[in-house]
Structures are given as C-alpha cells and as structure tokens.
Design goal:
Structural class: alpha/beta
CATH superfamily of the largest domain: P-loop containing nucleotide triphosphate hydrolases
Strand content: 5-15%
Strand order of the largest sheet: 5-6-7-4-8
CATH architecture of the largest domain: 3-Layer(aba) Sandwich
Bound molecules: adenosine-5'-diphosphate, magnesium ion
CATH class of the largest domain: Alpha Beta
Number of helices: 21
Number of domains: 4
C-alpha cells in the first residue's frame, strides 16, 4: 500500500515536487492506526508536516484501511531506522502537529545529505521537456487565447514586456505546463536567458540559498534573466518565501523582464499569498484555459498516437478505438496520455491488435477515476438496513442484538472503505459512537470476509450497489 501511496503522490504532485519532498519519505511502521513515516532531515520533516501532511494522510487513507493519523520522524535522530526496528521510542510529535513556521523561519540545521542530493541545489532551473513544444500543442476553442498570448510573448522581441506577468490558470492536465515549456523553448532558441521553475523548486532553491548564506547570489541570479517562468505557483507558501517571491516578481517586472506564471486557480484565489502579491500577479494578462472539448481531445489523442508510432511502428489504433478513447476520457490531457501508454503496453504485451474490447479493459480505471462516485454514509445505512430487514434507526441505536449488530458493523465497514471519512467522523454518524468502536467493527468485518466467502460476496454486492 505504501508503494501505491508514493506512486500516487508522484502522479498527482508531479515528478518535481515528488523528488524535492517525498523521494526520501519512508514508511517505518503502522500500529494502532498511526502510520510512522521517516525522513532523513529535520528540515524535510517540518516542511512535510506544515505543507503536505493532510495530503499524504488522505492518500494513505484511501489506499489502506485503518490509518488514522501520521507521524513524521527523523531517521537516525531518535531511533535507529533499522528495518523492522521498533516504533520510534518516543514519538516526538502529536499525531497532528500544529503547522510549524515556514522553513525559512525555522532554519534547519546543516543538512549535508540533503544538500548533496538536492535535485537542483543551486537553482539552475528545471530542464525543459523536449516533447512540450508549441509544435506539439494542439490549439482548440478552450485554449486558443492562452496559446495566442503564449506565442506573442515568446516571439516578442525588444521593448518592454507585453503582458507582464502573463498568467495562465486551469485545472490539472489542461496544458499549462505544456504551454510554459513551449514558451521556454521558443525564448531559449531566440538566444534569451530563461529560467523555468516550479513553485517547489523556487522554494527549495530559496531555502537552500538561505542555508548556505547565498540568498543574495540566488536573487541576483534570478533577476539576471530575460524571462522567468514559474509553474504551479499555488504551491508557494510560507511568509518569507512569498515575500521573496513578491520581491522577485516586482524586480523583474519593474525591469521590464517577462514573467510567465501558471496556477490551478486565478490570482484572486491564491489564499496563501498576500494581497499585494496577488494583485501584482493579476496586473498583467490573466488567461484561463478551459476544459478540453471532444474535438480537442480527439486531436490531442491523434498527435500523441502519431508520436508513439514513430518509435513503435507496429502500434496501430483504429478510428473506432480512438473515438471511444476520446469520448470516454473527458477529464484532461494527462489521462489521455495515460490511456495511450496503456494501449501501448497492452499491445506490446499481448502482441494483439487493439480492439474496442481491449481498449475498454486497458483504460477502465482512467474512465472510472474520472468521476469517483461519492458514496454517502446515509445511503450505506439505508441500503444495509433494507438488505438485513432492520430499520436505519436500529442501526443508529444502542441495541446489541445480533440481528442489529452485524448489519451495523457491515455498514461501518462500508463507510470506511467507500468514503474518505475518518473513524471518529463515522462514529459520530452512527449514533455518536466512539472511533474505537468503528475500528473494531472494521477489523471484525475484514476478518470475517477473509473467512466467509458468502459474506465476502454479500459485501462485494453491497459495494457495487452503492457505487453504481
Ligand atoms: P497542466 O500543467 O495544466 O496540469 P500539462 O501541460 O502537464 O497540464 O498537460 C498534461 C498532458 O496533456 C501533457 O502530456 C500535455 O502534453 C498534454 N496536453 C494538454 N493539452 C494539450 C494540447 N492542447 N495539445 C497537446 N497536448 C496537450
Ligand atoms: Mg502542470
């Protein structure tokens, strides 16, 4: 389950964020609902605790049952991190530590290890992805304006910057990063100095510079460029870092240098940034990229299929399959790309041509994940009650007869596996029970399912009824 958690974090947060913060996060053990994670440095610990704890917990919960809280420890600091070593002797943090001050405020002690392994210690900027160019970007109704603005800015030659900053916003997978890289390539080819950074890299670079007392050099370096491209600025947090971000922004814009920014929301909704930084971000051109319509999805898919065929000539996807994929995968470009990879894997592994049937199987999870059905605890209680001929109020009541206890426990179990609710929350929704009661029920049903195939089938059926 832990490997899945890491894989999901990597997929959801991106390679860059993952490498900066999570690559060295390890699971030590799980006991009593508490998952103990370790990192090599205090800095990573405080950073993860203050910025990513909820996210890691939510992901962990959806991959494994019975996790209630997380603790992050420092490997080697409190207890040796031998595999199979007992839990940290004295957990230092409460399960949900209060948000610690930003990493710059609480300057970490020297971290030899971290410095050596930092993905981009001196902030050279992240490399541009050769695949993400203007040429490979498909223009459609929902991104035409963003694309036109990107090209204008990229081709702009001489004179003060045009729209400054140029700000793109859109949901995940709609082409922001692609456009930013497109600008980066184009500007670089024109011989200008450009730096592409994700917010995480910006923060990492800044914190590192502070640690090595080279913050001044860091700033100089950032300001000595023609175009600064910043991706995913919604992740910029921490008082000193956002102040630094604001200074950098002002310095560049005032000097007429082009700044291009992308985020998952408009500038006004960047709650973590202060008002002045937000309004500066909103002061140039703000363009939203809309969702991909079917025509756009179909052409992105074709472009992607052709690109893959260049290296896999035998890989063929007929028009019916392509149409099905473009219709089924509505969420975003990333899933379309995922679909192509799956079709390719399928074709390569089986050696069989891609039929509608195989396509459906290969991309099933992408289609399903698109709109995870939200199951309500109330619906679970109603369905289970009616299956077992009791009333919903019986389930919520204090009664302990076998006829009521079993459906109640099944309903609690289903609430745990089908919703993201915590154990205490589930307890509250079951007539104000304690979370340990819920935990007991979950464990009991889990065990029973393992031993009793009839019950296993029954629970599986209930799950399907709730999810369809
Ligand atoms: P975002 O940064 O908005 O989350 P990305 O730019 O990473 O999204 O896009 C996700 C994937 O979808 C990438 O592989 C990208 O190349 C592809 N994609 C998105 N929009 C387009 C487009 N208009 N043309 C071609 N590919 C696209
Ligand atoms: Mg992106």
């Amino acid at each position: 389950a832990w490997q899945r958690v890491k894989r999901r974090l990597r997929a959801e947060l991106g390679e860059d964020v993952f490498a900066s913060w999570f690559a060295r996060l390890e699971l030590q053990d799980v006991s009593g609902g508490v998952a103990r994670l370790t990192v090599p440095t205090r800095f990573l610990k405080s950073w993860i605790e203050s910025h990513y704890l909820d996210r890691v917990l939510a992901t962990f919960r959806s991959e494994a049952d019975g996790i209630e809280s997380l603790e992050v420890g420092v490997r080697g600091a409190m207890a040796p991190a031998r595999p199979g070593a007992p839990a940290l002797a004295k957990p230092a943090a409460s399960p949900r530590p209060a948000a610690s001050p930003g990493p710059a405020a609480e300057l970490p002690e020297p971290e030899r290890a971290a410095r050596g392994q930092a993905p981009e210690g001196d902030l050279g900027g992240a490399p541009l992805d050769a695949r993400l160019t203007f040429e490979s970007f498909v223009v459609g109704r929902s991104n035409a304006l963003a694309h036109a603005a990107a090209e204008r800015v990229a081709r702009h030659d001489g004179g003060p910057a045009l729209y400054n900053p140029l700000y793109f916003h859109a949901g995940v997978g709609l082409g922001k990063t692609h456009l930013l890289h497109g600008i980066g390539h184009s500007v670089k080819n024109a011989g200008k100095r450009v730096i592409y950074l994700t917010a995480d890299r910006f923060m990492y670079g800044f914190v590192n510079a502070l640690k090595t007392q080279s913050a001044l050099a860091f700033k100089e370096k950032l300001r000595a460029i023609d175009v600064l491209i910043l991706d995913d600025v919604q992740f910029i947090q921490g008082r000193s870092i956002q102040a630094e971000f604001g200074h950098t922004l002002n310095a560049l814009i005032d000097a007429g240098r082009q700044v291009v920014v992308a985020a998952d929301r408009p500038p006004t909704e960047l709650e973590a940034l202060d008002e002045r930084v937000r309004s500066r971000l909103a002061g140039g051109l703000v363009v939203e990229i809309g969702t991909l319509d079917e025509a756009l999805r179909a052409s992105i898919l074709q472009t992607r299929l052709e690109a893959v065929r260049a290296s896999h000539p035998a890989f063929e996807v007929g028009p019916a399959v392509a149409e099905y994929v473009a219709k089924a995968i509505t969420a975003n470009g990333r899933d379309l790309e995922g679909a192509v990879n799956r079709l390719l894997a399928h074709a390569t592994l089986t050696g069989a041509p891609v039929t509608l049937d195989t396509a459906e199987t290969a991309i099933r999870d992408l289609v399903k994940n698109r709109e995870p059905k939200r199951v309500k605890i109330e619906d679970i209680q109603k369905l289970v009650a009616s299956r077992y001929n009791v009333s919903r109020s019986d389930i919520l009541s204090e009664r302990r007869t076998a006829a009521v206890v079993k459906p109640r426990q099944i309903a609690m179990y289903l609430s745990k596996v089908l919703t993201l609710r915590s154990l205490p929350e589930i307890g509250r929704r079951f007539g104000g029970r304690d979370h340990t009661t819920v935990l007991h029920a979950v464990r009991k049903i889990e065990k029973a399912i393992g031993e009793d195939t009839a019950l296993c089938d029954e629970v599986e059926l209930l799950k399907r009824m709730l999810q369809d």
